[in-house]
Amino acid sequence: MPSIDIQVLEGVFSDAEKSEIIEHVTDAFASVAGQTIKAGTSVRIHEIQSGSWGYAGNTLTTEAALEMRRRG
């Protein structure tokens, strides 16, 4: 069955927010794949250590990600 992996920086999302992400991602996938597939859909959130992720040559930190969230 489907397996969906999501990577985020550690400390950016609370446990409640991660639970909400899992629920919404599962529901979004099921809206395309169907309810039977939903029952077997696995969603995992992997937290990456601050400073261990980058893009466009820039290192991401938890502090920077939290600032992005504050800006909306």
TrEMBL record:
Q: Which residues form the 4-oxalocrotonate tautomerase-like domain?
A: 2-61
Q: Which UniProt keywords apply?
A: Isomerase
Enumerate the InterPro entries for this protein.
4-OT-like_dom, Tautomerase/MIF_sf
Q: Does the keyword Magnesium apply?
A: no
* Highest rank taxon of the organism: Bacteria
Gene3D superfamilies per the record? Macrophage Migration Inhibitory Factor
The record, for PANTHER family, names:
BSL4019 PROTEIN, TAUTOMERASE-RELATED
Q: Which family does it belong to?
A: Belongs to the 4-oxalocrotonate tautomerase family.
Q: What's the protein here called?
A: Tautomerase family protein
